Amino acid sequence: MTAPSNAIQSTLVENRVFPPSDATVAAARVAGMAGYEALCAEAENDYEGFWARLARENVVWNKPFTQTLDQSDAPFFKWFQDGELNASANCLDKHIGTPTENKTAIIFEADGGEVTKVTYKELLAKVSQFANVLKSKGVQKGDRVVLYMPMTIEGVIAMQACARIGATHSVVFGGFSSKALHERIQDAGAVAVVTANYQMRGGKELPLKSIVDEALAMGGCDSAKSVIVFQRTPTAVNMVAGRDTFMHEEMAAQSTECAPEFVGAEHPLFVLYTSGSTGKPKGVQHSTGGYLLWAKLTMDWTFDLKDSDVFWCTADIGWITGHSYVAYGPLAAGATQIIFEGVPTFPKADRFWTMIEKHKCTIFYTAPTAIRSLIKAADSDASVHPDRSDLSSLRILGSVGEPINPEAWMWYYKNVGGERCPIVDTFWQTETGGHMITPLPGATPLVPGSCTLPLPGITTAIVDETGQDVPNGSGGILVVKKPWPSMIRTIWGDPERFKKSYFPEELKGYYLAGDGAVRSEDRGYFRITGRIDDVLNVSGHRMGTMEIESALVAKSDIVAEAAVVGRPDDLTGEAIVAFVVLKGPVPTGDDAKALANELRNWVGKEIGPIAKPKEIRFGENLPKTRSGKIMRRLLRGIAKGETLTQDTSTLENPHILEQLARTN
Ligand code: WTA
């Protein structure tokens, strides 16, 4: 029995429940909770049989698999191992000879507003041509290719072309610095880099090619023999003879046909670097078969995709969301999708709304940070409010990347979705390959701020430090109990780190997500409470605190020590706050401001602008225990502006706290 006070509490917290309309349920692929529960029961009764059925129905296999799951080398799980397929053939060739071949695959809208469309047939021809270009450069099955590309059709072409020839791509987000790019090219041992001369964002031309030049000039990238440059703007860039060529010239010389290279289901489709709790980014390695299955299936389940839909995921291809829900999922599902090069606030903060109206978008998937910034913009300028656009084409909304606060959820629901569109709040990670916990639009009653229930076959649970289940209502550690097809396979080149990071011994072989969560007492709905490791989530971008600390101390002429923590932020979810000890005296006033600025720019150059601390505070030391451990808990309190009421008796140097709390 639940204590009465708890019951009252939970009604207060969860009094707004939004069930799907009868019409939505009737038309949905997974219809009602009965439909959802039937799939869950199928998975529970015969886990492997469930996945095998779905893999046969949703993936085109060149050679069928005979074994579904191989657990003999856990946690290095293998799915559909003896099956053979090609990811690009599953996204493109599959549609040839069907009515989808002449359907628009991509509606591309450039930063400046120009629109380009390609059909599935046209996209296949371009992907094949570029696959032939890669082959002509000597790129072979199993080789790694780094892509440093803007959000363009060409970005997707490059990814698909790699998949077509069995090369493993590693996309590096176009906002990362030359140093971050260098690190990734080196770690992946890339044989080629595909980039663009420039990218356009918010009316500005931003360099990409010169950053590739800088990265390659840092040395140790001898494996990278060719650089292929997409000419996005007319501006000339330096081209290195014998190494650099233009994408359009190379493609013009190639055939529009290229037979797909069939690979084993476990063949690495891509490696995508993400932040972890140590300084070095992790190369998350994904498979071909299991990954593709989930990218396709979650399009059908989570987004209830219909042939007539116009799908728009606003994520960049440099992140996992842009992999699964731009480059692979929509194409494997035969959708028409919008790809947008620019930013939501250019030329005005109504860009998303006007684009939804213009392209008759039906499913819109974006991040809470974007929503929060557009709420702010609409509050101060009524001319950019979504009510100025005709958003009646929309039928489903999605949210991804960070928790969505109930207020932002309600605004999105009312002002964008017209109180008619279910919001799917999708919880997942780079490592999970696709959605894990999310409502289904034609089934799950929605509760603002909750990602609700795991998808069928996904065994998420909340446990304590020893792996014991905790009761609903108690917070704990989010785990996944059983392996699933689209899970991370390893960390590129570092299997030990993979095991240690995701399958710590005390958790009984469960996958450790790195997030805290709690389930509601009434419905058992999941709510993600945030990372439990040293990873920050700033505007939905993952940043390791250690990564930023390493960048700061790398400025070794002035910085002695640094500690980085997160602080809640209304707009970006979390903001980065750095506490810095200088080699010289503690600066004050304008000196402090100038130094803080210098360090922010330094971090921007070392990692990328997204990693710049919002605030830097200087002190003569950091709060440490007597054994020398930095007390981050206290720093988090100071960053939030909390008064120091915690016990500081174990501190070596308590007066430091006052100093850090004072400086601004
Ligand atoms: C967070 C992005 C709450 C979480 C797909 C996770 C979320 C990290 C949600 C992964 C959500 C993602 N609600 N938190 N709906 N989606 N997160 O690897 O902390 O860039 O661990 O993958 O984002 O970030 P990543």
Describe the structure.
The protein is of the alpha/beta class. The strands form nine sheets. A seven-stranded mixed sheet has the order 5-4-17-16-18-19-20, with helices on both faces. Strands 7-6-8-11-12 form a five-stranded parallel sheet, with helices on both faces. Helix 3 packs across helix 4. The structure holds 5'-O-[(S)-ethoxy(hydroxy)phosphoryl]adenosine. Residues 547-629 form the AMP-binding enzyme C-terminal domain.
Give the gist of this structure.
The chain has 664 residues and is of the alpha/beta class. The protein is built from 20 helices and 30 strands.
How can the largest sheet be summarized? 7 strands, mixed
Strand composition percent = 15-25%
What is the helix tally?
20
Tell me the Rg in angstroms: 25 Å
